[in-house]
Amino acid sequence: MAKITAYIPEPTPVFTPDNQRQIIQALTTIKDQLNTSYQQDIRNEQLAFTQFLYGTPGSLCSTGTSTNPVVIVPGGNSVDAFGRLRVSNPLTIFDSKNIMSKNSLFDESTVNGGTVTYTQNKSTVNLNVTETAGSKTIRQSKRVMSYQPGKSLLTLSTFVMNTPTTNLKQKVGLFDANNGIFFFVDGTDYKIVRRTYTSGAAVDTEISQSSWNGDKLNGTGASGFTLYPDKSKLS
CB 170: neighbour CB atoms within 10 A? Predict the structure, then answer.
């Protein structure tokens, strides 16, 4: 926005028409300058958007024209599961923290020596297993976040896994024994898994990190990030 300069005279002890006119003129000057600079800002935004759509010589979108514009298709986290641009704040339907104690909104089950412990100074719940075959620990929310037609679901989880080790299987996500989506550390292999029950039995479709179609998070992708699920990224 352009710099605005205006002089508003000091009020006089006795009201005079001249003094009032000077004040009104000063306020009018401010209003006019604000409107002028604001309109220029709008024009600049419209021009930038037009250049983004149709391109300018030497730009990334230089092939676009007014009759054959470049089609911009948003993707990634900017769209929901139906390809619609996310333009509103998300509505939280479930939130869980473990401050001072374990959150009671979860069920826990252990098999063959598995245990669940709480670390208060880190506000974390630790799922532990032994080297005994079949040792297992599950912590799952009591509430089920069911799908609603036409509405996508977004889940964000904070976790630190154990060091990837052969025969150690670690999972986190939005899933149960029959359905869901989750991140799976299968021994030393990282996978994204979709679980379905449409056939009457749970079927897992596993996509290993080497086959991820976006950023593989191995240091070679667009982000340059390397995924270390056994390290904390919170500070």
Answer: 18
Residues 6+ apart with CB under 8 A from 37: 1, 2, 4
Cβ–Cβ < 8 Å for 129, 120: no
What is the distance between the terminal CA atoms of the chain, rounded to a whole angstrom?
37
pLDDT at 6: 66
- Which residue from 136, 143, 99 is spatially nearest to 116, judged by alpha carbons? 136
Backbone angles phi, psi at 98, to 5 degrees: -120, 55
pTM of the model: 0.62
CA distance 20 to 9: 9
Residue 231 makes CB contacts below 8 A (sequence gap 6+) with 160
